[in-house]
Structures are given as C-alpha cells and as structure tokens.
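A brief tutorial aside. Many learners find it easier to grasp structure tokens once they have seen a single protein encoded end to end. The record that follows does exactly this for tRNA (guanine-N(7)-)-methyltransferase. Read the sequence first, then the structure, and try to relate runs of similar tokens to stretches of the chain.
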Amino acid sequence: MSEERRTRTAEAFFGRRHGKTIRPMQAVVLADVLPRLKVDLSAASPGDLRALFPVPVDRIVLEIGFGGGEHLHHAAGAAPATGFIGVEPFVNGMASLLRMLEREARPNIRLYDDDAAALLDWLPDGSLDRIDLFYPDPWPKKKHWKRRFVNRANLDRFARVLKPGGLFRFASDIDHYVNWTLLEVARQGGFSWRAEMPDDWRAPYEGWPGTRYEAKALREGRRPAYLTFVRT
C-alpha cells in the first residue's frame, strides 16, 4: 500500500456502511441507477467539473454525507443551474436518494459512494463554489474525536478545492462538535466565519427543507447550529 493510500485510509469517512437490510427495489436502484450517476475517480479529473453533468450548470456544490438525501434532492430541484455532487458511503442512505431520483429525476446530481477524502483529492483546485456538511457523526467519546470529519487534513482539502469566496456550511445539533468546528476552522486559517449576530448561526439556511436528523434533534430538545464559513 502506498504512503498516500495509507494516509487517506487513516482519514477516511468513518461510519457504518450498512444498516437495515436492503430491500429488493433498493438493490435494483443501487445496481442500475448508481453506476450511471457515480463519479469515476479512475478517470482523470476534468479541468472543468461542469463536464460531469449532462445539463448546463454554472456553479458546483459538494454535499458530504447526505444521509437520506432529503436536502440534496430538494436543493438540486430548487437550483437546476447548479451542479451537485453528493457523497454518502452508507448504503441505505444512497438507496433512499436513488429511489427519490427515480420518482423525480435531477440531472444536475452526481454521486459518490465511498471515502469523501478520496473524492476531494481528485477534484481540481478551486473547482467548488460550496461544500455542505450537515449533521455528521459527532463521535461523542473523546477517544473517537480523531474520527470526526472536521479536522485539519480535511479543512486543508476544503481550502484547496473551494474558490476564493466559496462557502463551507456546517450544521449540527451537538454543541461540542459545533465548538470543535469553530476552533478547527480558526486554526486552519483559510476561512472566516460569517456571523455577526446570534441569528446568523441559529436560523436555518435560506430555503432549508430540514432533514430527518434535524427533526430527531428537535424532538429530543437539541437546538441545531448552522455555521457558514467563507474561503478567504
């Protein structure tokens, strides 16, 4: 195994790959639909990511860990001139989004079902307008904090692939992970936090449809935070 591969494995997108048993229709879409939408990292990265999409797009957004796909599907429908790349290694989440796409196609979506760090390393410099990371696994035990996706290595990746002025958006209902993210981003030094008053991080993003994870957090009495950072 190469040194590059060992490093990437150590920084992988940790989490479960399987949950509930895959139902027959889910298996069908994973076998038939996903290959048509999947970003192929074995191919050379295009100089212009707009070439990944069969429709004209003028902006590119990456959503890492899209869960059940509610936000990604909604966002792609609301902004058809934006190309969205969604990453989700959890098989059940990917199958959920693919079923939505069967019912309501989104030609401006492309998908990747493995390690987000590998995709980030494949992307060209300054190729993204925004990165969204919503409700990532908080890994609450201190011994597991090193597995949190927000870390110096991944923030360096974000800084490389985002355009100057591009956005990194982070939402979580776990106070400690919110504080962790603020500190890690400040240490990285390539971003500024776009907040001047409490509503700038307490109010959901414009056009926010909500997610199943957010709904659970609200039911359990946890108040989410919505952070926005600008690539300087």
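Self-check: The CA atoms of residues 137 and 148 lie 7 Å apart. If you spotted this yourself, you are ready for the next section.
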